[in-house]
Amino acid sequence: MQNLRPLSQSLSQSSQLAATTANPPAAHPQTPSLQSPQQLFQADQLHPLSISISPQPISNNTYTTFSSQQGKKLEIPLYTTYGTPEHFTVRGRVIEAEASTPNSEDNWLDNLRRTAHQLHAEDKEHLWVDVNVMGKTYRTQTDREGFFELQLRAPGPVKPGYYPVQAQLEPGQKHYYAPPAQGRIVIQNPHEKSMGVVSDIDDTIQVSNVTQKSQMVKTFLLKNPYSQQAVPGMAEFLTALDQHADGEIDGDVNYVSGSPLNIAPRLETFLTLHGFPQGPLDLKYLGLSSKSDSPTEQLNYKLGKIRTLFETYPNRNFVLVGDSGEKDPEVYRQIALEFPGRVQAIYIHNVTCSDPHSQRFQGMVAFDTADQAGADALARGLISAQQEASIQNAVRHPQN
Question: Does the domain made of 7-24+190-396 have the CATH classification 1.10.540?
């Protein structure tokens, strides 16, 4: 099950394997009530995930919720992001609203229709959106794929943790309305020594059957957050690691997955329903722009996302959690080599039933069930005995 040699020693002995991953490829319309502020961008020319703006607030502490329900109904998914007091991102999208929300009584056809909507929902371009965060309200405009993004800094000193975000359409636009949206961002101090967690999603915390492609597609299309199975004990394991980081459950777990950004609301609902700690979601943008992520590339995609995370918090060490179904062992090995001394442990859910002592898992803990990972984390001082017992109990008495 385990290989407890020091991580740096084991990784250096596997440098030949790492060499294969060492060199990855690297005029506004006017709002009826306000003049266009500096934060508005040329929506036809800029891609939402590469916008760089210096927004000016339109108001301080005067965010007013509008309740008009005239026109076509839209919705505003807000994506959980991470940042620092000096720089954080608010990101969202305006799309056609779903006809219904998922529930435990949905059948496979309900789930199929909803998944199809999530993947192909009509996005709404050039709509004005008011975003409220940290007591200030900003107005921005959606781009041609319905996205909006603000690059901001905190107005003053802030503590690490979750911060709420609200967004709504500016009223009176093109006969549309949308319920006010609620979301969150996670702020961490880049200057303090601390611990974070990087976790994959598919087959690491939820049963996705990635190694069986036909079953994977069936699971993706025909399940919803209620019927999607969680890997027993993994919610308790990640919660224990999050709490160990600073004594609180406050966004120390970063989820990095190859799932499409379109299903972020579905994944966040899954996390909530199954008791996982909430945290930032780094998902693939699959769109028409040249900035679109490859739907099949995993290794370089994940390397880029995790490198950015490590560089954002240069004084933070990390525990990396993934599975053996795709490229997590190779990605995590490369990260540990690039950032020596900053990876405290690597846990790999052995969904391929591979030899846990094989070269692929050198310096890592390949586990079959979450209680095995919990026992190792206890031995390393990463969780408490009480937390380890809760992981064991969850594995023995799964709630799925």
Answer: no
